[in-house]
UniProtKB/TrEMBL annotation:
EC primary class: hydrolase
Protein name (database record): alpha-L-fucosidase
EC number: 3.2.1.51
Ranges of residues in domain PA14: 457-596
Keywords in alphabetical order: Glycosidase, Hydrolase, Signal
SUPFAM superfamilies with a match to the protein in the record: (Trans)glycosidases, Anthrax protective antigen
Length: 600
């Protein structure tokens, strides 16, 4: 690690003193009743913008951008890569540092980048503040391996501050990518010295939060790997996530803050893929490239079409996901024109005839199965069928229903053609009278009546009995009412100060009252063991010790009826998690709310 002169050393010492890494409570000791579950991300006000906005811009930009995807080896051969070029092309560190000294993104134009995002319909931006190369894209006080102190860039400019102002002015939220894995910091790979690196990482993250007030932090580099060795553990992730929520309770944080599991962070991060169905147990966002690289590579001209990209956005929305689409500025800080063109074309589609209603604020169609001819999303009492395979003249589109509901009306956005809807077999046939409005997707808006929903309940939660052993034996140590089964005790927490962090068990009893009469999917997120009974029937039996995992069961529940429920949980050693969610064709996935749970 290279440091500046004494002045910087003093600043670093002060930063680290103010940013000490919280010590972990020994797993075998007494706990303080800590629960790391901040809220239910599926319903929290904190995450509402993330669930509504759906479409964001990813920006990969760093010292690697200066090479623009090509490295000339000493033997005259050329090695090609982008953001991984240092590692994949085996560039010696001194040589890599030398090229970074010439990095001068003088043409970086925050207003132009934000305009490109706005024109695309994007509602948030995430930029790499530090990628795996360890190079900070802001004037950090922690080291001199950053854009201000180790480049030819204007020392008075701060591209993150510029992007923050432009984003705020445009009403777009800004977030930061930050790599845990660090190829440059010499303390990182050795577990003996890793705590020194960790303190510097905490100091940098505090700088980012305090200086730029990001809405989101997007971590990466959490996996087990080498070149260099990565010592990051789930315990490290627990401490970091807890620390960040102490800095800003409103932060939205991805699951790579830990080990990319359903129990880490607020949302999952499938990369370069779109799940085929809604993701169980966690919000999610698919990140993808416009071509074949994240960082700029001048040789890569394999651009995806605007049609493909728009259909990807529709697919993610129809499964309640977000779409984070990447651009990679070149060495001068300019976003390639093919990227700008495709983003503008996506925005044109979203703005035409109100077709953006199928994306912004929309979610999983739920009431119907996903059709082969397109994607269906839902917003309130409307279904938006984005048709990518328009029927031949006189033909129809079939929707298979998942529950009983009535279609009240139908129309093609941007067209006055007549649309006929008739019940047919296991669903509805939709027959438009005219042609498709465009080649990307034509949206049919269906106004629906999903059927009766009872009034919200008046429950206060379930009866909770806590045992200071893992076998639910003897008299409970604590008996109380638990508002919701939404717990993430992790390594260091437990249900109460008098209960150890390891070897405890809990029983919840009472009743659950749905607001709709449907077949529900009950989902447990648990570690170590869990089981669930509904009306005396064991429906989830996950009573073999396991790592964090999901278990599901389908049960028929009747609106207004209180169905008896019993949930048992046991923690042996290590992490402790227990969440109970429900979903149905008419009910979005969420932790079962307090209002629908009763102690008897």
């Amino acid at each position: 690690m290279r440091h500046r002169a004494t002045g910087l050393a003093l600043l670093l010492a002060a930063a680290l003193a103010a940013t000490a890494v919280p010590a972990a409570t020994a797993g075998s000791g007494r706990a303080d009743g800590t629960d790391h579950a901040a809220d239910d991300p599926f319903t929290a006000d904190r995450t509402n913008w993330f669930r509504q906005d759906r479409f964001g811009m990813f920006i990969h930009f760093g010292a690697y951008s200066n090479l623009e995807g090509e490295y000339k080896r000493p033997d005259g051969s050329t090695c090609r890569n982008a953001e991984w070029i240092k590692r994949e092309c085996d560039i010696p560190m001194d040589e890599y540092e030398k090229q970074a000294q010439n990095f001068n993104p003088a043409d970086f134009d925050a207003k132009a980048i934000v305009k490109a995002a706005k024109d695309a319909g994007m509602r948030y931006i995430v930029i790499t503040s530090k990628h795996h190369e360890g190079y900070a894209m802001w004037p950090t006080k922690v080291n001199d391996w950053n854009l201000r102190d180790h480049s030819s860039f204007d020392k008075n400019r701060d591209i993150l501050a510029e992007l923050k102002k432009a984003s705020d002015d445009a009403g777009i939220k800004l977030g930061f990518y930050y790599s845990i894995w660090d190829w440059h910091d010499k303390d990182f790979p050795d577990p003996a010295t890793f705590p020194k690196y960790e303190k510097r990482m905490y100091a940098q993250l505090k700088e980012l939060v305090d200086t730029y007030d990001p809405a989101l932090l997007w971590f990466d580099g959490e996996w087990d790997t080498d070149k260099p060795h990565n010592p990051w553990t789930a315990r490290d992730g627990e401490r970091l996530e807890s620390y960040l929520r102490g800095l800003d309770p409103d932060l939205v944080i991805n699951n790579r803050v830990g080990k990319r599991r359903v129990v880490d962070g607020d949302y999952g991060t499938p990369e370069q893929e779109i799940p085929g169905a809604p993701v169980d147990g966690q919000l999610w966002e698919s990140c993808m490239t416009l071509n074949d690289h994240w960082g700029y590579a001048r040789h890569d001209q394999n651009w995806k079409s605007a049609q493909t990209l728009t259909r990807n956005l529709l697919a993610t929305t129809s499964r309640s996901g977000n779409y984070l689409l990447n651009v990679g500025p070149d060495a001068r800080g300019r976003v390639p024109q093919p990227s700008v063109d495709r983003l503008r074309q996506m925005g044109d589609w979203l703005r035409t005839a109100g077709q953006g209603e199928a994306v912004f604020g929309a979610r999983y169609g739920g009431l119907v199965e996903e059709p082969a001819w397109g994607h269906v999303s839902r917003k309130g009492d409307k279904l938006y069928a984005a048709v990518t395979q328009w029927p031949a003249t006189g033909g129809s589109l079939h929707l298979k229903v998942r529950t009983d509901f009535e279609v009240k009306s139908a129309r093609v956005l941007g067209s006055d053609q007549k649309v006929t809807v008739t019940r047919s077999g296991d669903g509805y046939d939709i027959k438009p009278s005219g042609a498709a409005t465009n080649d990307t997707a034509t949206v049919v808006e269906l106004r629906v009546d999903p059927g009766p929903t009872s009034r919200p309940g008046r429950g206060k939660g379930l009866k909770q009995e806590i045992f200071d052993n893992e076998n639910l034996e003897g008299a409970p140590r604590i008996t109380r009412t638990d508002a919701t089964l939404n717990h993430s005790w992790k390594y260091t927490g437990s249900p109460a100060a008098s209960i150890p962090a390891d070897r405890f068990s809990i029983r919840w009893t009472g009743s659950v009252e749905p607001r709709r009469s449907e077949t529900y999917t009950l989902t447990t997120v648990s570690d170590d063991m869990a089981r669930v009974w509904i009306d005396g029937k064991l429906v989830i039996d996950s009573w073999t010790p396991h790592e964090p995992r999901l278990d599901k069961a389908e049960v028929r529940l009747t609106a207004g009826r209180r169905h008896s429920i019993k949930v048992e949980y046991a923690e042996r050693t290590g992490e402790a998690h227990l969440k109970l969610l429900w979903s149905s064709p008419g009910q979005e996935q969420q932790v079962i709310p307090r209002s629908q749970l009763y102690t008897r």
